[in-house]
Design brief:
The protein has 233 residues and is mostly helical. 72% of the residues lie in helices and 0% in strands.
Length: 233
Amino acid sequence: MSPRAGSPASSSPGAAARSKARRPRGAVTRERVLDAAVRCILDVGYYQASSNAIAREAGMTWGTIQHQFGTREALLLEVLEQGFAMLDRHLETATVEGRNLEERLHSVLDLLDVYYGQPEHLAQIQILLDLSADPNTSKSTRRAIDAHSRTLTRAWRPFFVQAMGAAGQNAELVEYAFLTLRGYLTANLIPSRIRSVGRDPAIRGLLVHGVACAISERARALGLSVDPTSAPS
């Protein structure tokens, strides 16, 4: 999966080409196959993205892909793991900024957008749903998915604490903010695959404003501050 343009992981085409040239051929091939798997799922749908369809998209034989990944299940699991790894690298240097709660929640939404607002996430959702529901999915894959899901949830908490101060220590408030902001981003992805849909800044602003008001009201009732300086270090 190629990182979103403008994100910390992005680079110029020339720099990307030089980076690929420095990597072993096997690593370049793996990335090519992972990109092809995502494109195939997005273009023809999860169940049409067969082993052979992914191989055609990558411009190689399935035998070559098997040599790299072993099985289609292992390939799809690595698509998920690559997405998690890219997100981890982004979050290492990410910060939340803003003079008030609403501005800071806008900042958190921008961070969430890097992962949940990109087309690749639709492919990841389909992989997660199928691997989790398929009775033939191996136990090791299920364990890996569960571990990544728990890690992903924990990864966001520090940013909500930065945005919400002491109120960010309240699990209920964090879950509300996370689910609402993530839901908005994910909901925008689905129609974007059907027709051209532009993002409406006014709706985005209304959403964040509503979340900020709800958090502020609930925090006051609980005696919690939303000032980031109030959060425990």
